[in-house]
Write a structure and sequence with these properties.
2 domains; 181 residues; alpha+beta; four-stranded antiparallel β-sheet
Length: 181
Amino acid sequence: MMRLIVPLLMVIVAVGLFFKFTDPIFAEIKVLQDRQATLNEGLNNAKKLREVMKDLLDQYNAIPGTDLNNLNKLLPDNVDNVRLIIDIDNIAKPYGMTIKGLKIKMPEEKTAEAVTRDKDNARQAMVSLSFSVSGDYNRFQSFLSDLSRSLRLVDVSVTGFNSNDKGIYDYNIEVQTYWLK
């Protein structure tokens, strides 16, 4: 009988030791294997993103320098009010117009409702610039036409005028321009 009890007791002890020590180690190995699989997936995604980034960088580097300058002028990455004023003044000069009464309105802090509404446009910002010029109507039309064809993205949002007896009008203009944040 003793011969049977000792091996049976040893088997029971071995099974107990397995469940006490070995099984938790196997469970920990399973958790680590799952974590390794997640990390490997993240590593593969990072490699794919690196390839996409390299392709985009190659495409960007293939753009000629003059085109990049034109793109930066169209939608700059900062507020360059001085350059904008100079550009508008250069457009007005051929028509004998001078910019007067210049006012710059920087964007105000947005309310929660405005932030929610403008979430899609979060990468861009806007600044308003108001000024006045004097001249006859034909020159003013030509000035606005040239302003609309300039490389800088400018929206004329408000226009108004004051007249006098000489046929020279004072035009009040407000434009909005944009830049990337």
